[in-house]
């Protein structure tokens, strides 16, 4: 699983942001893979958000060649400070901070995804990244992953404050020691042009396998930078060009583009509607949420107010499930939580807990991710 593939969890990922945390077509930030003009020692394989779904049993086309990266309007970049203080100990803290900045700027407004209330992005990231971090720590402790601080600083800086398309073909800064065909636990262990492919969903070790390009049958995470693995009408997973993130006022094509904090009307990225104006159910509103019964944008709801989903509530709140359906303050560490009622379909991610994690054994809010099954 590629660190930033599974996450970019699905968000723009809801748009299909990514080659794998991580193809948003399946729901985290990652279908936006665009190369940029940065030094060759910084450019590498695609990254988006840690990929939890990269274990697929499908066969890739034999002899699938590496197609070239898709180039579209490459952003002009000033590289951030490469002395940012990142270490293996604080890498995931800085990653969450960078991703929160990315989603606040770049989440598309015309797709149903997990980031409809941008203020809640950091809390949701905690619940998703921390369990993933546990898996990466296993590989780090085994010496299978090291850190290139210069690349990591460039990546994290551009992810946090750079162009929305800037990091799609960049390395995350985590560097592996496995070679082609070598054993691996996460994508970053493999050399550029390879990903970690698992024979089934129950094994802890996969094999570094060559990525494929446009039109090739793929596993999640198995596409080259610039492409995403998506299910087509023939019920096949094949690599197709990734979505490009456009800005409000830009021309757009709904077949190839998404609009950051705006929506594509078929040809142009429009600003999101504000409170009191009409909206489409499931879409973004500016500084509020879309009431699916009235199709009207409403301001975020405070404690005790009626809500439809967790995206209706103000930052720091969650929506009590039916029949209560009231916004309430998120639960503190040690408070009882019900993972069956207050979580997404991600292991341990809690809608109710301020930490983003609910211990499913003891049913209490925790800040400790479950231990890895792979040691």
If you had to describe this structure to a student in words, what would you say it looks like?
The chain is built from five helices and 18 strands. It is α+β, with helices and mostly antiparallel strands and 375 residues long. The chain has a domain at 3-241. A three-stranded antiparallel beta sheet has the order 4-6-5, with no helix packed on it. The longest helix has 21 residues, at 121-141. The two termini are 16 Å apart.
Number of alpha- plus pi-helical segments: 5
In whole angstroms, the N-to-C terminal distance is: 16 Å
Q: Percent helix among the residues? A: 10-25%
- Across the major sheet, the strand order is 4-6-5
Name the average pLDDT: 75
Shape: globular
**Helix-strand string:** HHEHHEHEEEEEEEEEEEEEEEE
The Rg value, from CA coordinates, equals 20 Å
Q: Give me the count of strands.
A: 18
Class by alpha and beta content? alpha+beta
Largest sheet: 3 strands, antiparallel
Low-confidence stretches: 5-74
Strand percent estimate? 15-25%
Present the secondary structure layout.
Elements: H1 3-6, H2 12-15, E1 49-50, H3 91-106, H4 121-141, E2 145-147, H5 149-161, E3 174-176, E4 183-184, E5 194-197, E6 206-210, E7 227-231, E8 237-241, E9 244-246, E10 257-259, E11 262-264, E12 269-271, E13 289-291, E14 296-298, E15 317-319, E16 327-329, E17 357-359, E18 364-366
In short:
The protein is of the alpha+beta class and 375 residues long. Helices cover 15% and strands 16% of the residues.
Key attributes of the depicted protein:
single chain; two-stranded antiparallel ribbon; alpha+beta
